[in-house]
Every structure is written in structure tokens, then in C-alpha cells.
Amino acid sequence: MTEQIAIWWIRKDIRLEENPIVNWARDNKFVIIPLFILDSILLEGNYTNIKRNQFLFGGLASLHTNLQEKGGKLTILKGGIIESLKKVMASTGSNLILAEADYSSYSISRDKKIIQELPLKFIDSPAVLLPGSIVKKDGNPYQVFTAFRNEWIKKVQIPISSPNSQLGSILVPGSDIASENDQIYRSESTSTLFPPGEKKALIKLSEFTEGVSAPIYTYAINRDRLDKDGTSRLSPYIKFGMISPKKIVFQAFQAIRNAPNLEAQKSAEIWLNELIWRDFYIHILFHYPSVINTNFRKMNIAWDNDPKNIQAWKEGKTGYPIVDAGMHQLINTGWMHNRARMITASFLTKDLLVHWKIGEEFFMQNLIDGDPSSNNGGWQWTAGTGTDAAPYFRIFNPITQSKVCDPDGKFIRTWLPELSFLPDKYIHEPWKTPLEIQQKSNCLIGTDYPFPIIDHKFARERVLKAYGSKY
Question: Less packed terminus of the chain by CB within 10 Å, N or C?
């Protein structure tokens, strides 16, 4: 029987190993044409991010190399989605388009239009368990994480197959399609934190989860320390599917089973919980697409939204070192430690009384791992407007957080060099530094580093009044 040809429309699955579309094509005797389309939203949209695109292009270049090793190639086209798909179908005789489902409002709207014109078939999704597969007995979706997690644990099955050794037989070798962006095949990301590509992702996963001294076993005690490298830093790879979420979950379960002691096991379970949170937020966005723009909880907060305060926050000039250091890490690297995300988000929404949507959009415009569902879920949690929201009276004290999460000021000094010579005693509250010590430390507060733009005690009382009547 003659094999049929399908387009593998690559979106958030930039990998070969454990790829549902690749496996489906092999099982159903299709040959596939790997295709990535550079559309205007990616290149010029409101969330366009140079660092994220550099990482993406580096991942695509890596995928192209991996495909060449298997006898195929990656085709990259620039322009309209429907026009590009039609062009490839016409030039190759393909009669099916395969893609992972996606659940952002833009993706859903785009895919509805495509289905009306072209044979688009969804294979799996970026979530470990398909959205809609975890609901309560009455058919309604879970809105509380713990209940969702318990059901997720019952249902999850992670069959990890062997690498795609027969991959070459399902690729169209040396396709005649003229790619319009050959330079991307040679792209290299400038990020030293996140070298792009599937192979790099697999190495990071292995280093984090394998062996009795693996960092996953100390994750519980190190994950909130900004001055330590205690997290997996896999999020950018997960964002673009350079590694399978199922494989990561499988490794987490393996680590739990192989834990050398109970403390290490609990630590690995906490890391698994973070992966389940990702699934939870994907499911929430699927069931409640309006959360991308509105509060999950129906609240009407009188936001202040002072433009000067917003700009100071964006530039890392609030006068609170732990907040500013986090923002400088984001601006300079395209990534921010998760604890710093919580601290900076709390400061914006609670101390400055700024609408979470403003912060959410800024993160999306700057994070390499910026993903609509997780980013939205995290911001609404911190703002107290989302699912499992932090209680309105939970307001992070930036000074306390600084002392707990960066006790010696190592993180602060890394990202705020103007505070480098300030004594430890004053690193968390530099405005309290005596003038003589400021002069000796080459850091005059108000000149070299700003005074706090708001008093935390005042801010706390203000936000409690603003929120209190809404609960």
C-alpha cells in the first residue's frame, strides 16, 4: 500500500523523541513533512520577545540538524498560516495536516479558521493529560488545585517508548519546498543559561533528576533560594516542546521511586507538583478562556495603576533590592527565578496596587519561557483573583522575603552592582544605611540607588482596604 503524506505542522513540539505526531505518523503509515511557519503574531505581535525568538530559532536549527541525521529536513516558511499550509500541500501532494492542540485564545481562533478550509487533525496537546479529561462527577471542571491534582495522579499513565530509531522511514527526504528563511537553520541562541535544542533539554533533565545526589532531592529546601541554583530551569524547553512533558513527569516518578530517603522523596514530589500546576493552568485556560483578560474571581478592585510606579517596577528602580534584582534578572536574561516572580508580582499588585494584567503582559514580553496559561495562572494567583488564589491578606513583605530568600545578598549584588560594597547589614534595606557607610560603599541612596517608591506598611494597609470588601 502506498504511504500517504502528511504535514507535521510544528508549533510547540520542537523535538523528535516522544513526539505524539511522529509516533502517530509511523503507526498509521504516513510520511511526514516537518514544517514551521513564521507568522506575523510570532514576529510582530504584542508579546513578541527577541530573546524568546532567538531561543526558538536556535531550537529550530537544532531540530533541522537532527532531522538531517535521520534523512529529512525542516521546512520554514514566513507569511500567512493558511497560505503557507496550502502552498506545502499543493507542492507535495499531502492530504492531511497534523498538529498539537493549543488553547490560547489566539490559537483557538486561528485553528477554527483553518479547520474550515483545510484537513487539520490534532494529535495530543502540550499538557500531560488532555484538557477536558479531568472533570468532577457532575462534568464540571476542577477549580481547586488539590482536587485536580488528586484526580490527575489517579489518571496519569506515562508510557515512555524507545527513541524513534525508524524515524527516517517516515520523513520526506530532501523535500523540494523552497524554504524562505535558511538563516534560521544556522541560528544560535546567545543565552548561556538556555542553550536551545532537544539534546540540551534531555541533558538538563538528566542532570536534575538522576543519581542519589540529584538536585531534585534537595529541591524542597533550595527552590526558594534566589542565591542558589536549586531549580531545573527546564521551563523554556517545556514551553517550546523541546522535551516531552510526559518524559519529564516520567523522570519525576522515577526519582520519587528511587529516592534515597523520605526527605528526598518528598522533595521530588514537590517538584512533580509544579509540573501538575502547569497542567492545571492549561486545563483552566481551556475551560475558562476569558481568564486571559479578566479575573477568574468576580472582583472589582479599585486599582491605582500609577504610571510612574509601573515604570519604576519595569526598570527595576523601586528601591527594594530584592524586587529590583529580580526585574534586572528578567530584563538581562529573559528568565526569572520563580520565587522572584512571586515577589515582584506581589509588589506590583499588592504594594503598588497595579492591575495584574499589566505585569502579566510585561512578563510575556520578556520571558523566554513566557506561556499564556502558566503566566496568567501565576499572576492571578499572586493578585488574589484566580483559582486557588493567595488570600487577599497574603502580602509579601519585600524585606522579609529578601532576608529569607537571599540572606547574604548574593543575588542582589549579582543584579544590582551599585549595591556590591554595601555591608550585609544594610543590603536588604539600603535606605537605612548611614551616610558615612554609603560614601565608603560608593553608593549614595537617592543618587546611585533609589529610595523606596512606596512605604510597605502604608501599601499593606491600603491594599487590605481595597481587597477586604471584595471577599
Answer: N
